[in-house]
Design a protein that fits this description.
By secondary structure, this protein is mainly alpha-helical. It is about 75% helix and about 0% strand. It is built from four helices and no strands. The structure holds fe (ii) ion (FE2) (2 copies).
């Protein structure tokens, strides 16, 4: 399983947002290692909890910036955040409480979950903030 590597293609050109995203990429890699190495379930659960908590915190950070700088796409962006958190909680529930093994589809899902939003919705926000901050 390959680690996600942070590089400039993931940068939204806003330093405080990039710093959060780097942390999320680090946690994603820690989680994937834990899954591949079949670490104890309570450890994997702790990593997932940390990833989800950091993501919730990060989304609030972005939403605060959107409000501060009057971003037009606020409602849509926030709705996407809510869907992402719900889908991560569903995956956590499935893996940890229903005892299902982690599949490569689950890993692909998580990678897309993390990277898809950064490359799309967050890039648009970064471009806007770059002009107004
Ligand atoms: Fe976002
Ligand atoms: Fe983000």
């Amino acid at each position: 399983m390959k680690d996600l590597i942070w590089d400039n293609t993931l940068s939204v050109q806003i330093q405080e947002i990039d710093e959060d995203h780097r942390r999320l990429v680090d946690l994603y890699n820690i989680l994937i290692h834990a899954v591949v190495e079949e670490n104890a379930a309570n450890y994997i659960e702790a990593v997932m909890d940390e990833l989800i908590s950091c993501t919730v915190w990060h989304f609030k950070h972005e939403e605060r910036l959107m409000l501060k700088y009057d971003y037009d796409g606020f409602a849509e962006h926030k709705a996407e955040h809510q869907e992402l958190i719900e889908s991560a909680r569903e995956l956590q529930q499935k893996l940890l409480h229903e005892g299902k093994p982690v599949s490569s589809e689950d890993i692909q899902f998580l990678e897309h979950w993390l990277i898809g939003h950064i490359l799309g919705t967050d890039m648009d926000l970064g471009a806007y903030l770059g002009e107004v901050m």
